[in-house]
Structure formats: structure tokens, C-alpha cells
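Human: We require from you a standard protein entry with sequence in single-letter code and fold as C-alpha cells, and nothing else.

Assistant:
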Amino acid sequence: MAQETVKAFRMQLKPGFEAEYKKRHDEIWPELSQLLKEAGVTEYYIFLDEATLALFAFQKFGENDTTASLPALPIMKRWWDYMADIMDVNSDNSPVAIPCPEVFRL
């Protein structure tokens, strides 16, 4: 059996925006959610370390992973613009995402 493709990364939330970050993701745009699924994301989790406001994201991908093309899509750029005021971002408003390499799997 082949191992699932996974990716984990860390992002940073700005102080005071914990509830707003959760609210925005609770209300994620249906077209963005659908786009992620169509790009091959089968599971996507984001966890918050409340002490440091670090966000830890974990994604699983199916066989048809086309997520590399997502940054060029207008809806992805709109989402980044929407989230830019509450988290650390790059100059294009994409979140600063620090890869977390896998070191163990059970």
C-alpha cells in the first residue's frame, strides 16, 4: 500500500485575532473549499497553539494533486487578501508558511 502524500507547515496569527481566524474558516467560501478538493486535498486541518499563536496546518492529498497551481488562481489570491490583516504574510499576501518536515509516522 502506498503512503499518503502529506504536507505540514506552520503559519503565524497576529495577536487578538484568534476568534476572527476561526470565524473566517468556519465560513470558508464554498467555491474555495470545492477548489481545494478538486486540486486533490482530501483532508486539511489547521491547529492553533494558543500560547504562541502559531498555526500548524496538515494536508493530505489524493492521487490527482494539482495544488501547485493554486497560487495563480484568482480565488486563492482573494482569500489571501482577505486573510492578510490577521496573519503574517508575504508581499503577495500569501501566508508565510514554514514547511514542517515529517520525522515520524505510525
